[in-house]
Structure formats: C-alpha cells, structure tokens
From TrEMBL:
<feature type="domain" description="Pili assembly chaperone N-terminal">
    <location>
        <begin position="1"/>
        <end position="59"/>
    </location>
</feature>
<dbReference type="InterPro" id="IPR001829">
    <property type="entry name" value="Pili_assmbl_chaperone_bac"/>
</dbReference>
<protein>
    <submittedName>
        <fullName>Fimbrial chaperone protein StbB</fullName>
    </submittedName>
</protein>
<keyword id="KW-0732">Signal</keyword>
<comment type="similarity">
    <text>Belongs to the periplasmic pilus chaperone family.</text>
</comment>
<dbReference type="GO" id="GO:0071555">
    <property type="term" value="P:cell wall organization"/>
</dbReference>
<dbReference type="InterPro" id="IPR013783">
    <property type="entry name" value="Ig-like_fold"/>
</dbReference>
<dbReference type="InterPro" id="IPR050643">
    <property type="entry name" value="Periplasmic_pilus_chap"/>
</dbReference>
<dbReference type="InterPro" id="IPR036316">
    <property type="entry name" value="Pili_assmbl_chap_C_dom_sf"/>
</dbReference>
<dbReference type="InterPro" id="IPR008962">
    <property type="entry name" value="PapD-like_sf"/>
</dbReference>
<dbReference type="InterPro" id="IPR018046">
    <property type="entry name" value="Pili_assmbl_chaperone_CS"/>
</dbReference>
<dbReference type="Pfam" id="PF02753">
    <property type="entry name" value="PapD_C"/>
</dbReference>
<dbReference type="InterPro" id="IPR016148">
    <property type="entry name" value="Pili_assmbl_chaperone_C"/>
</dbReference>
<keyword id="KW-0143">Chaperone</keyword>
<keyword id="KW-0574">Periplasm</keyword>
<feature type="domain" description="Pili assembly chaperone C-terminal">
    <location>
        <begin position="85"/>
        <end position="149"/>
    </location>
</feature>
<dbReference type="InterPro" id="IPR016147">
    <property type="entry name" value="Pili_assmbl_chaperone_N"/>
</dbReference>
Length: 158
C-alpha cells in the first residue's frame, strides 16, 4: 500500500524553522469469518506513529545539531532541581536518550523532542539540589538518517 503526502499550501508554515506533523497509521488485518473452521486464531494489529518534518528550502541541513545545544541547571524553591536544554537552532532536536550524572548518581530521563528556538526542562527525581555538584549531561539525538549521535556536556553550576 502507498500513502502520498502533499502540501496543499492552505496554511502558511514558518520559513525560519522546521515544522513537525504526526502521521498515525493503524494496520488492521483482513478477516475471513467463515473460513476459520472452528479453530482459534490471533489477529495482530499494528499502530505506527510517524513524524513528518517540513523543512523550508533555505534552512540548510542540521549539521552538528547536538554540539550547539545549551545546557543549564534550574532549582525550584521546593528543593527540586532540573536540567534545561536550550535549542537555539531552526531544527527540531529529536532526543532518543538523556542521561544526567551528578554527584555520583546517574539518572536516565525521558527523552523528547525540543522545538526550534525553544527550551525544555527535565526535573531530577526526588529532592536533589544542584547548587554544588560536578557532573555531565549526555544527550543522544537521532539525525536525518536515523543514526544516533551523542554529545556530553559538563553540567554548569550557578
């Protein structure tokens, strides 16, 4: 089966950054009720969720995307601390893994996409203060070809 996606130009998309859309597919197998002969059978349905990126012509390629991310720390008054990742670029940063090693402890945090020209905060579990620490943040991104690119950053402290 073939799916054809066409941009119909009814909605103007930003030309200074990527846009992302989600394409959801549910594959339902055909069933033939009369031919089962009284035997058990199992039907498997697959659900796929595909990211579709629109990249304007003049935007170029996201070379060294991981190297240009900026890492900051943030502390809440309640004793919680987190890591802020700033994406100052016009491309989405699709994270596949995010690991924070701080004061001898290691945290694998839920990876997510970071939109162009924006930031996202990940809170460390429990009450962890990052006021005096040493550590690294390792970010693993998925590039345009599906390869995983990792970059480690020293965690800055205030």
């Amino acid at each position: 089966q073939v799916v054809r996606v066409i941009y119909n130009n009814t909605k103007k998309l930003p030309q200074d950054r990527e846009s992302v859309f989600w394409f959801n597919v549910l594959q339902v197998p055909p069933t033939n009720i009369g031919s089962d002969g009284g035997q058990n059978k199992m039907l498997v349905m697959l659900r796929s969720r595909i990211k579709l990126f629109y990249r304007p012509d003049g935007l170029g390629k996201p070379d060294n995307l991981a190297k240009k991310l900026q890492i900051k720390t943030v502390n809440k008054g309640s004793g919680k601390s987190g890591i802020v990742i700033v994406n100052p670029q016009p491309w989405f940063a699709s994270l596949s893994n995010l690991n924070v090693k701080v004061n001898g402890a290691s945290y694998n945090l839920d990876a997510d996409m970071i939109a162009p020209f924006s930031s996202q905060t990940w809170w460390l579990p429990g009450k962890r203060s990052l006021k005096s620490f040493s550590g690294t943040v390792t970010v693993t991104l998925v590039n345009d070809l599906g390869a995983r690119i990792s970059e480690s950053y020293d965690v800055p402290h205030h």
